[in-house]
Design a protein that fits this description.
This protein has 453 residues and is mainly alpha-helical. The protein is 78% helix and 0% strand. It is built from 20 helices and no strands.
Length: 453
């Protein structure tokens, strides 16, 4: 009987094969896009010391400029995602990448505070909608039971950006003086223009929906349309139907608070990791520091592969996500409080692994009950309010270090907010966000009780 039940629960072979084919086609390219996106928003951390030395920009001004990116990003996330839902990913992702690449390259000419602030703000405006657009795009192509591991693979982009981008950024910084340009100018120019070129490629490579994909057979299109269509019907019946209903949904706002805290942990570390590693090694930021800085991201890559797969296999989301984020908070705290460079580096490995791997698990919650235009608006709202954590983190870190006259105070504060985020994830069950039961190979997505707006 158990064997019969197991066989009945197994997915049809055409759907499995279709998901695998879509994954092989889309994920490598989406990964490339995310690597460039993450690198262009975070490479300011590599340029920090040289950039400040050459421009005279102080620590507080640097923190403001690093964080102001997220103000522009947050303001335009929802309208950008609604436009993508209407015009399609092909044209809109091209527009996003080309404009953000040009603006990132223009950072090479940020010689004073005002220019620095303006370009960082405009970079956020240009990139707005990229990440929630990809999350929404994945819901068009992948059923819920595959979504955590697929999003986990997409999240490889952040670790890869640092595994490959850290040494690359270090090498570009070492080009100081070549062709009359400073090292940080080379870094911004090369990495920004690379994003623009990939954006042009995206227009020709991406398809808006499975039905538009010439590389899928009619049977494959039917298999994925049936699986995703059934989930969309359930979402429309049990979740908010319109944009306003999604944006005012109290459970979605609770998820926004969680994502805000997650992003505080991410960017509180990301913007300062090269500087922190350089301090541990007693060296200036360059190729060698870039190589060592890549180590925590290798650990994050492994975690982003293993933990979402474990969650998809067991169907358990909430506790796994809470423990993963709690580990990140503990890693941040230990990295600030130990005297051993080796232990501090290991703690940073745990921190990076935790705050990267928790995010694909987190996204199964909003994508489990939002569909259609509500998904476009709701996913963008979560990401936009969460992105404000990227603005708050460097500024509260700088404030804590100044207020408590301690270089470790900022990291302790970020560790505390990260642990608070873990507690809020545990509270999802009490708010009626019901995680999937561990039902073997095909766990369902998290869903909400019936709520229509």
């Amino acid at each position: 009987m158990a064997q019969t039940a197991s066989s009945a629960a197994a997915p049809p072979a055409p759907l499995d094969l279709t998901v695998a084919r879509i994954q092989a086609r889309l994920l490598p390219f989406l990964l490339l896009m995310y690597v460039l996106a993450f690198l262009d928003r975070a490479n300011i951390g590599f340029a920090k010391k040289a950039f400040q030395a050459d421009t005279g920009i102080g620590d507080a001004a640097f923190a403001l400029g690093a964080g102001i990116f997220f103000i522009g990003y947050a303001l335009f996330e929802v309208p950008s995602n609604l436009i993508m839902h209407r015009v399609g990913a092909r044209a809109w992702m091209c527009r996003i990448m080309v404009t953000w690449g040009i603006l990132s390259a223009a950072m090479a000419f940020a010689h004073d505070e005002t220019t620095f602030y303006v370009l960082r703000f405009l970079l956020g405006v240009a990139e707005a909608g990229f990440f929630p657009g990809v999350i929404l795009y994945l819901t068009y192509w992948f059923p819920a039971n595959a979504r955590a591991r697929v999003m986990g693979m997409f999240y490889f982009g952040a670790p890869i950006a640092f595994i490959l981008g850290s040494p690359a950024s270090g090498l570009l910084l070492d080009l100081h003086g070549a062709a009359g340009l400073l090292g940080w100018q080379w870094m911004f120019l090369v990495e920004g223009l690379a994003a623009s070129m990939v954006g042009v490629w995206a227009y020709w490579y991406l398809d808006n929906r499975p039905g538009d994909a010439r590389w899928l057979s009619a049977e494959e299109k039917a298999a994925i349309a049936e699986a995703v269509g059934a989930e969309e019907a359930h979402k429309h019946a049990h979740g908010p139907r319109g944009v306003l209903g999604a944006l005012t949904n109290p459970r979605l706002l609770y998820l926004c608070a969680i994502y805000f805290l997650i992003q505080m942990s991410v960017y509180g570390v990301v913007f300062y990791l090269p500087t922190q590693v350089a301090g541990l090694l007693g060296k200036k930021i360059g190729f060698e520091v870039g190589l060592v800085t890549a180590i925590p991201w290798i650990c994050a890559l492994a975690a982003a592969y293993l933990i979402p797969r474990h969650s998809d296999r067991t169907g358990e989301r909430r506790v796994t996500a809470a423990l993963t984020l709690a580990a990140a908070g503990a890693g941040i705290a230990v990295s600030a409080g130990v005297g051993s460079p080796l232990v501090a580096l290991l703690a940073l490995c745990v921190a990076a692994a935790g705050f990267i791997a928790v995010q694909p698990l987190f996204w199964t919650f909003p994508t489990g009950f939002l569909g259609g235009v509500a998904a476009a608006g709701g996913i963008a709202l979560v990401n936009s309010l969460g992105a404000l954590g990227g603005f708050v983190a460097p500024n509260v870190k700088t404030w804590a270090e100044s207020a408590f006259v301690s270089p470790a105070a900022g990291l302790y504060l970020l560790a505390g907010t990260t642990l608070l985020g873990a507690l809020l994830i545990l509270g999802l069950k009490g708010l009626g966000l019901v995680e999937a039961s561990a039902n073997g190979r095909r766990p369902a997505a998290a869903v909400l009780p019936q709520h229509q707006s």
